[in-house]
Amino acid sequence: MKKKILVYGLPGSGKTWLSSRLQKTMGCSWFNADKIREMANDWNFDKDARSRQARRMRNIADYEKSVGHSVICDFVCPTKITREIYEADITIYMDTISEGRFEDTNKMFEKPAFGEPTIHITEFLSDAKIEELAQTLLDMEQK
Question: What is residue 78's predicted lDDT score, i.e. its pLDDT?
């Protein structure tokens, strides 16, 4: 069964870096929030805009899944509500930095509750570890 994967965390935590490598290894679809914001010309980052972006990313991911693709979306997804809006099958929390480069995002960001992310990443991964993670995700597709 194809999966919607959310890679989230503070700006600068390595979401895009990891997602691009996973996509190459897994051969799935991948969408980066900055590229989607650029296409929508929506550069507002208040709470309403964050929810709007989560819905935008969910709609793209839902389409990809509906046509038989697993999909990775990487974006900050700073609150429990935005993560619920996206409705991920698998969540990967990039917990590699204590604060990002944008103070407003740091203030808004809600760390996930215990057990919330499927996978909790606390350091940048080597190529071998990325391969292992990709294989784990591919195995999860089978379930």
Answer: 96
Q: Which pTM does this prediction carry?
A: 0.95
Look up residue 71 and give its two tokens.
């999909």
- The angle, 0 to 180 degrees and rounded to 10, between the axes of the packed helices 127-141 and 15-26 is 60
For the chain, list residues with pLDDT below 50: none
Q: What are the φ/ψ torsions at residue 37 (nearest 5 degrees)?
A: -60, -40
Residue percentage of the chain with pLDDT more than 90: 92
Residue 24 tokens read as 């190459």
85: left (phi over 0), alpha (psi -120 to 50) or beta: alpha
CB 82 within 8 A of CB 9: no
**10 Å Cβ neighbour count for 35?**
12
Res 96: pLDDT: 97
Give the angle subtended at the CA of 87 by the CAs of 83 and 91, to the nearest 5°. 65
Cα separation, 106 vs 78, in Å, equals: 9
The predicted structure's pLDDT at residue 118: 94
C-alpha to C-alpha distance for 88 and 96, rounded to whole angstroms: 21
